[in-house]
Design goal:
313 residues; alpha/beta; three-stranded antiparallel β-sheet
């Protein structure tokens, strides 16, 4: 049993991994271990852990891993059925939007735990941004965000730029043979969030497309990042089933930020203000209230902000 699974996993690795120069020696080492009997008697969970550990030793890529498949999301290897299950998961989880709130002092707060593709979650994203559109500062909480779609990251980020003229990211695929540029979206439904401060909360669990939103906004000077250094996974990835209950996730491309010329793979996104994740909201809220108290034209809002600040103190 392990032989067939390992061979299939290595075939998928060598066919799809964006860094073939890393895939070939990793596959050779794993096949050597297979021949020596290292994986004999392992069930799928143990085999997945063992293969992932060896892949990490060779590739140091946090998106590259073998893992058991969640039966709630991947009950089948049929792509159409799997897509239907995934869409239903997005629907019942509100496309990752866990909370939208107006805090006292007219500060918006978005708790975003996943990044849905714009074609699937655009209406929900637009609705969330509409609800905070009249606030005077915004807290974007990505501390529990585990990632999602690169084009969803661009859609979210575009709300913080005035037009379609901001180059946010590029993705290189095909071992350097293709490069796609991602720019802010020229037309968005709803109102953009401009000329007001944005505070992004991060933790060591913030990952992948959640990190891209953070990195895009930080590199363009559009947000202040508060919290912990993120997990460090910058490579767009796809899942490939090995069996109905086992899969390998393989990075197909790499991100290249137009400002920094690199990405956050392995290093994570480093916050502007480093504090423990559990304190990040309080720090951000205090900064937002200070902004409101010095800029708001509304006496009602300023009174709210003073009361809220007293509560923090």
């Amino acid at each position: 049993m392990p032989r067939a699974l390992v061979e299939r996993a290595m075939e998928l690795l060598c066919t799809h991994y964006v860094f073939p120069e890393r895939a070939v020696p990793a596959a050779a080492d794993i096949r050597r271990r297979l021949t020596e009997g290292e994986y004999d008697g392992m069930d799928e969970a143990a085999l997945a852990d063992a293969l992932t550990l060896t892949l990490a030793e060779h590739c140091a890529d946090k998106h590259l891993r073998v893992r058991t498949r969640d039966p709630r999301l991947h009950a089948t290897v049929d792509p159409a059925e799997a897509d239907a299950v995934y869409r239903e998961h997005l629907r019942v989880t509100n496309h990752g939007i866990a909370r939208v709130e107006r805090l006292d002092g007219n500060v918006g707060c978005l708790d975003l735990r996943g990044i849905t593709a714009a074609g699937l979650g655009g209406r929900a994203i637009t609705a969330a941004m509409e609800l905070v559109s009249q606030t005077e500062a915004l807290i974007l909480d990505l501390r529990r965000n585990r990632g999602g779609s690169p084009d969803g990251a661009i859609f979210w980020t575009s709300y913080f730029f005035p037009d379609g003229e901001t180059h946010l990211n590029s993705i290189e695929s095909g071992a350097g043979t293709a490069l796609r540029q991602y720019w802010s979206v020229a037309y968005l439904p709803g109102e953009r969030y401009l000329d007001r401060p944005v505070y992004v909360l991060t933790s060591d669990r913030t990952f992948s497309a959640g990190e891209e939103v953070s990195y895009n906004l930080q590199s363009q000077g559009r947000a202040t990042l508060i919290g912990e250094t993120t997990r460090g996974g910058a490579h767009p990835t796809d899942r490939f089933p090995i069996t109905p209950t086992l899969e390998i996730t393989v990075p197909l491309a790499r991100s290249i930020n137009p400002v920094t010329g690199t990405n956050w793979e392995g290093t994570g996104v480093i916050p502007d203000i480093a504090v423990p994740a559990e304190k990040a909201h309080t720090v951000a809220y205090r900064m937002a209230l200070e902004h409101v108290l010095t800029t708001s034209a509304s006496p009602v809002v300023r009174d709210e902000a003073r009361a809220a600040m007293d509560g923090l103190d």
